Prior knowledge:
Blueprint: H1 2-12, E1 15-18, E2 21-24, E3 35-40, H2 48-58, E4 62-67, H3 77-84, H4 102-108, E5 112-118, H5 120-127, H6 134-141, E6 146-150, H7 154-158, H8 160-171, E7 175-176, E8 180-183, E9 189-193, H9 197-206, E10 217-222, E11 227-228, E12 234-235, H10 242-253, E13 257-262, E14 274-277, H11 281-291, E15 297-300, E16 307-309, E17 328-330, H12 334-339, E18 346-353, H13 357-368, E19 372-377, E20 389-396, E21 399-407, H14 408-426
Parallel strand pairs: 3-4, 3-5, 5-6, 6-7, 10-13, 10-15, 13-14, 15-18, 18-19
Antiparallel strand pairs: 1-2, 8-9, 11-12, 16-17, 19-20, 20-21
Amino acid sequence: MYLPICAVLYRTGLEFPTGSLTVRLPDMGKLNGRRVLVGITGGIAAYKSVELTRRLREHGAEVRVVLTPAAKEFITPLTLQATSGNPVHESLLDSDAEAGMGHIELARWPDQVIIAPASADFIARLAAGLADTLLSTICLATEAPVAIAPAMNRAMWDKAVTRRNVATLESWGAHILGPDSGEQACGETGPGRMLEPGEIASILARSEPTGVLQDLQVLVTAGPTWEALDPVRALTNHSSGKMGYAVASAAVSAGATVSLVSGPTALEPPAMVSTRQVVSAEEMLSAVEADIDSADILISVAAVADYRPAEIQPGKIKKDASDLTLELVRNPDILAAVAARPSPPFTVGFAAETERPAEQAREKLIRKKVDLMVANLVGGEDDPFGSDQNSLVLVDNDGETALGRDTKVRLAKTLIEEVAARYHAKNPAANP
């Protein structure tokens, strides 16, 4: 009788005494009723997916499995049908599906997609936007969160092209779980092992509670502004908008409702973000003022031009003279204007500087009376404009916090956690 009783306790998360020690067994129902689609790609770690489907069901999830053609070389559909409790899906074109579009039906079904294992090949194909298998098509068509558990040889994981592909998927909002480090099937040792199934299931279960910005309204500005001189020329800067877009995506992942005001960029608007495109600093100010009353947090990442031409010439300026004098006037300071409101939101600014970034950020923090300034050094060899990497230092009234150097996507996630902690400390009544 002991083992069955323990099994029941293990599944329900109950406490029971053992002498002077009270044991709290894990609550295995945190995915209760959630629909999880498990995608399996070709790799030796596919055998672990059998255990993963079982663990997810222990957590209370309803599970469906999708196999790539390569995955079937490592694991059989029948095995996964037995562990998931549902038929396994393999074919991109399903004549038995409603309207013959099984991939769309499956894309609409899950609350969560997890690709485990995710091979280097699948990651590369998905990063390129290919939809040549049922699984990749579902990933592109679904609006559910997508998590990816990489599994590959350590050298493949270390390749710059693999890291670039992973960063691309992260920029789209995918959550990268792992990889782990250790002995691999090929006999080598290093990073590239798929996380253990129990750990993946626990991560997905922990991700279900509300995020650190759940139910909050976050307004983000990003990109450069374009201050017209004439119909074809303008004053602008090298900002790519990548940092601001990454911050907007990270805020969505943290549970916030996000509005993005973006200057001219070549980037696709982030998923699940309400994006408004503007050109000039005055247009950006108007867009911010239109949304600021409902915002709990403003994160001003945009590189707003400090000056604009006093006059915009109606026609193209001709190069008739050897010299040209332009009269410039100050642009509005959007961040300072928001911080000066009677009841401002929690305000976060960025200070992109070519020298002494932390010192310059502190001066702006004090002068603009904002809650947090994010300092970064720009224009150097290590941080060229448009790079996918950055190095940030947070500056507030309590001191400085270095976030180090990393991809903009990962830094954005860390930044959102730091902003959330400071916001909730300042607004304890808003704590979830």
